[in-house]
Design brief:
By secondary structure, the chain is an alpha/beta fold. Helices cover 45% and strands 20% of the residues. The protein has helices at 15-27, 47-57, 73-80, 92-109, 127-135, 146-157; strands at 3-8, 30-36, 64-69, 84-89, 112-117. It starts with a strand and ends with a helix.
Length: 158
């Protein structure tokens, strides 16, 4: 049984993230989603808050579990025995970055990376877009799963 690892900051999770997770859950028997603290990105939500939102939106996927970690993704992948790292791609910029990371990860550990193209209706969605719209009081319901929409908008009302 191959364990697929889907790492990211998920700050906050979007419909695009959920689509990649769901598609992996259909292919792999065991899917681990890990919120990795990325110091280079804006952290509006804590890793624990992101993980909780991911647990809410994946609650009906029995083969998906969610965790948090710090450090290198490959170290976490080795720790849990992941056979593959899965990353979603929205555009050519994502592809350039993820190919570089996939090669580095493979050189360090031998773990392969699978890149999954986002579906057309999710290509434009990013966590930073959601944060910007929410911070200005806009409607984010088209970009995030309904179960977590209020959690996200409430964060920006404070």
């Amino acid at each position: 049984m191959v364990t697929a690892l889907i790492p990211g900051s998920f700050n906050p999770p979007t419909k695009g993230h959920l689509d990649i997770i769901s598609r992996c859950a259909d292919v792999f028997e065991n899917v681990r989603v890990v919120v990795i603290k990325n110091t280079a990105k804006v952290q509006t939500f804590t890793s624990d808050e992101c993980a909780e939102m991911l647990r809410i939106i994946t609650k009906d996927m029995p083969n998906v579990s969610v965790d948090t970690a710090e450090g290198l993704v490959v170290d976490y992948a080795k720790k849990i025995g992941a056979g593959v790292i899965v990353k979603g791609l929205r555009n050519a910029r994502d592809l350039d970055f993820e190919i570089q990371m996939a090669e580095a990860n493979n050189l360090m550990t031998g773990i392969e990376t699978m890149l999954i193209a986002s579906r057309g209706d999710n290509i434009h969605i990013s966590s930073s877009l959601v944060r910007e719209i929410a911070s200005l009081g806009g409607d984010i319901s088209k970009f995030v799963p309904p179960e977590i929409c209020k959690i996200i908008t409430d964060k920006f009302k404070k």
